[in-house]
Amino acid sequence: MGNPSSDTISVHIPRDLYEQARSDAASQHRTIPGQIEYWAKVGRAALDNPDLPVTFVAEASASLAEPREQATPFEPRGQRQ
Question: What residues contact 38, with CB distance under 8 A and at least 6 apart?
Fold first, then answer.
């Protein structure tokens, strides 16, 4: 997410949706198009996985976008030292 494709098109969206995207984009450090793309991807993933809570889908999507070198390996509780 956040890497807009060089192959883009323009679409018309309602002004109130644009203003909400502007507000959310600023707080999430995204561009307005990046925010709308994020909503679309999370919405699509939520529709594809109706048994999962939307917050889980959003957090999982965000974690996939994080650089792998910053990831902390999972260690089951019984194996932690």
Answer: 1, 2, 28, 30, 61
CA distances (Å), 21 to each of 13, 24, 29, 33, in order? Answer: 11, 5, 11, 8
Angle between helices 32-48 and 15-28 (to 10 degrees): 100
pTM comes to 0.66
DSSP 52: S
CA distance 63 to 42: 12
C-beta of residue 9 within 8 angstroms of C-beta of residue 36: no
In this structure, are residues 56 and 42 in contact, taking their beta carbons and an 8 Å threshold? no
Q: Which helix (H) or strand (E) holds 16?
A: helix 15-28
Q: How far is CA 65 from the centre of its chain?
A: 8
Q: Average pLDDT, stretch 13-21?
A: 96
Which helix (H) or strand (E) covers residue 1, if one does? Answer: none
